[in-house]
Amino acid sequence: MNEPRVLFDYQGELPECPIWDADSQSLYWTDILKKQIHRYWPADGRHSVLTFEEEVGCFALRERGGFIVAMRSSIWLADADGRLSQKVCDNPNNPKLARFNDGGTDPLGRFYAGTYWGPRDYNGALLCRVDSELKTTVVQCDILGANGLAFSPDGHWMYTSDTPNHVIYRTPLNQGEPGLRQAWKIFEPGNGRPDGAAVDVEGCYWSALFDGYRIARFSPEGELLEEHRLPVRCPTMVCFGGSDMKTLYITTTRENMTQEEISARPLSGAIFTLNVAVAGAYKPKFKEKE
Q: Which secondary-structure segment (H or E) carries 262?
């Protein structure tokens, strides 16, 4: 069995939202706490960093070039150099209490962005969607920490997770519109919490198990098919990439860890790669109306 390997000499604070760009064969990700978007080219080892004024919880690449970025207070369009060009909307939550967290695009090229409710006193977070006309709609509520966004290859299902509540949801889609979400997998405390995720071409769901030292692959029926251990406690998200889409990129964090734990697990915050047998499904870029 293949073992996860470190991508390169890098440790962030809270790396999240890895995105593979097939056109340039490069990997993007955000370091939320450092307010940065990173880019790395595996072929030659180049690494670039864009810095923003606020935390970038999630983002997506645009068909027109540049990004759509969900920062703490609002969602913006930005150019390839990170310059903000057009405000899309304010954070539908109170930005003092909830920042944007996990997100990405659906098969129609629309951008989904979820929030994380900081006080953790009730399920105050939400999931919103930005369409091609830059209209923003709140599509789900009753969430504590939005994560795990992924879509089945046939477009019939949307997956999400609520990490603090230890649950993965599956929501039926009717021509892209979500119906009533269903609890798909519930995790017992102490066994890892479902964080960011991706789907492969067989429709299997790969989940980063925060606090669980591993990533897991589940069948569309919810059966555990594979587990891969990591030398760090908290993976945060996965994405597929590489020329054949059979490289799994895994972000991890060192947020809220003591110096003793970081010394014991110095790779916390690194990005790992894992060669897998089944290719990942491509994620479209954000599509804007002509």
A: helix 259-264
Strand residue runs (E) in 42-133:
46-51, 56-61, 67-71, 74-78, 84-90, 98-105, 111-117, 125-130
16 is in an annotated binding site: yes
Report yes or no: 235 and 209 within 8 Å, Cβ to Cβ: yes
**Token code pair at residue 98:** 């909830």
250 burial level (CB within 10 Å; 0-12, 13-18, 19+): buried
pLDDT of 260 higher than 90: yes
Calculate mean pLDDT across residues 188-198. 96
2 labelled ligand-binding: no
Average pLDDT over residues 36-42: 98
Contact 127, 116 (CB under 8 A): no
Considering the entire predicted model, what is its pTM?
A: 0.97
Task: Please choose, from the candidates 13, 24, 60, 22, the residue with its C-alpha nearest in 3D space to the C-alpha of residue 251.
Answer: 13
Q: Which pLDDT belongs to residue 1?
A: 56
Mean pLDDT for 207-228 is 98
Q: Is 195 annotated as a binding residue?
A: yes
Residues 6+ positions from 162 with CB-CB distance below 8 Å = 123, 143, 144, 145, 146, 147, 169
pLDDT averaged over every residue in the chain = 97
Measured CA to CA, the distance from residue 244 to residue 238 in angstroms comes to: 16
What would the pLDDT profile of 177-190 be if each residue is shown by its tens digit? 999 999 999 999 99
Torsion of CA 103, 81, 55, 166, to 10 degrees: 20
Backbone phi, psi, residue 261, to 5°: -70, -40
Residues annotated catalytic, as ranges: 195
